[in-house]
Amino acid sequence: MAENFRGRKGIIIGGGASGLMAAITAAEQGAAVTVIEHTARPGKKILSTGNGKCNLTNLYMDPSFYRSDEKGFWGTAIRNFPPKAAVAFFRNLGVLTMDRGGYVYPMSGQAQTVLDALLRGAKRAGVKIVTGCEVEKAGRKKEHFEVTTNLGTFTGDFLILACGSKAAKATGSDGSGYELAKQFGHRIIKPLPALVQLRCEGDLLPKASGVRVDALVSIQTADGKTAAKDRGELQITDYGISGIPVFQVSRYAAKLLDQKKKVLASLNFLPDLDETKVRYLLREQREVLSGETAEDFLSGIFNKKLASVLLKAAKIQTDKKAGLLTSEELERLGATIREFKIPVKETNPFEQAQICTGGVDTAEIEAETMQSKRVPGLYIVGELLDVDGICGGYNLQWAWSSGYAAGCHAAAGIVPGYLKNSRAAGKTMTFSGAEGNRTQGKQERKKHTYDPDQSAHTSRGPRGRGHKEKGGKTSKSR
Ligand SMILES: Cc1cc2nc3c(=O)[nH]c(=O)nc-3n(C[C@H](O)[C@H](O)[C@H](O)COP(=O)(O)OP(=O)(O)OC[C@H]3O[C@@H](n4cnc5c(N)ncnc54)[C@H](O)[C@@H]3O)c2cc1C
Questions:
Q1: Crossing angle between the packed helical segments 327-338 and 275-288, to the nearest 10 degrees
Q2: Which residues pair with 9 in a beta bridge?
Q3: What spacing in Å lies between the alpha carbon of 435 and ligand 1's midpoint?
Q4: Pocket mutation for ligand 1, best pick of 396, 400, 402 (most atoms within 8 Å of C-beta)
Q5: What is the pTM of this model?
Q6: What is the pLDDT of residues 323-339, one digit of tens each?
């Protein structure tokens, strides 16, 4: 540890995932750390993660799983504190983890275990957590930072902003972090809801509300260009569409809608079959069920409610005899099944979003340390930054990696690789979850694809493949 870093005093605003990680790391490096948390309990959001089970990281890492206006910003922090470091870190705090096809959960199946471990780690390292503490003003006075609150004034040699985004406000992240960052001169890229449901126009699809179906969901602009696509279990709701594939593409829809562009969701309900195979399948089905109604003919393939919606969308009478369906009608039906297009009105609001896209512009942040390029000694971490990950443990991983980078550098002026230097090195074993889930996880990941023309993100599926960035440069998987 450098001499001038000895005995540093630090303040962290925000006691969530990234703030607690930064606090533990900084305190373990010898700093006296105070966490200021405005709610009554730190880490509330962690409790709702992974449906209460906390998908705390993912062993399958690919650069295309993160997005930011500044391409590749996240890579250094993730390399220095990779998913295996998160596993080792929590093991060192007494948490065994379970690997379900790469998706890592605490073995207890309870998010509470993760939060308890973080609070234990903070206590062990001597971190002071002040709850119910409302920040009124934060600024830099000569060599130190001063934070004025309802509970008095705190001073420190460094200040870490770890306030989260505007998503799921009920958990404490109310967007006030953006205002604090602005006070220090930082630019904010407009935060928008992400990993969120999409509200659509029209009253036909809602007739299949409640149906869950494997589908390929594409976000398209009016000119037919695909901005993003993802495959998985689509959930049809009374207001639009939900489910993991919708969450994965929602940030692209949110950005396009914010630019006042017309956005369509194109749903492919038979994503494994090309146009010819769908044609063949429908003709065969017509033969098999020629004496039945069109509705029954399609119900052998789809849920009855969805079958009826598809027939109506293709302008085919549901009670028409299947054997009388013309080739033209089958063509129309095939096209509808493969490209069911609905205009997207809006995303669900921030309250329902898991995360935000946007945040503090990372061009003003050092990628290795999370230190502000504007204000030395100020660090910004976690979701408050313009970095958003796909579903699957990637957002918590970002909170751990960025919190760790800031904690190390703020307290000790170093950027160590966690697995090389920590006493937890080697404790990277995870236990296996059910085989079914392992397979499902791998299959799902292969299906993430993002159109490079629109987003510069192309996930190449299998582990270890290269990632193509805009302009054709290929970087190695991290
Ligand atoms: C329902 C749900 C499920 C999710 N599931 C997963 C999952 O399984 N896996 C995954 O990787 N990600 C998941 N996420 C996303 C993940 O939880 C977040 O990305 C992550 O918690 C962000 O960490 P953070 O520290 O940046 O912010 P937060 O965890 O939001 O913490 C911010 C903290 O700062 C406090 N704060 C805010 N402003 C102030 C202020 N002005 N003064 C003092 N304190 C302040 C807040 O009260 C809060 O405690 C989920 C999110 C939601 C909402």
A1: 130
A2: 32
A3: 30
A4: 396
A5: 0.89
A6: 999 999 999 999 999 99
